[in-house]
Amino acid sequence: MKLMEEEDKLRDLMRQKEGYEEALKEALNGILDVIEVNNIKHSIDVMKSRIRTQMIAVHVAEKNVEAARIRLTEAMVNRKTYEKMREKAFEEYKRETEAEESKEIDELVSFRHAVND
Q1: Cβ(6)–Cβ(37) below 8 Å
Q2: Taking a C-beta distance cutoff of 8 angstroms, is the pair 61, 3 a contact?
Q3: Which of 44, 45, 59, 105 would you call most buried, defined as having the most Cβ atoms within 10 angstroms of its Cβ?
């Protein structure tokens, strides 16, 4: 599912950022290598930017899931409505058929009664 994939990507990016932050702490505790510290800080900034972009992707995926859920709900309501209409039409057909059969039986009984008299 797209939303889950996007959330997984976001978690991976956050883990990578945490790794860079941990590397920065270690770099600051040891012998100070300014170039390495600057590279790590740059990597953290890049990860923050990628995380923001991924958060937008997650938000879009959430909106898509919500839109799909709404469409599914509407389709289910429409299907139920159609089924009820079909059932009502069938019941009406059965009533009409029973009325016609009853009328035919009445006519047949009346005809036999008239012939026997």
Answers
A1: no
A2: yes
A3: 44
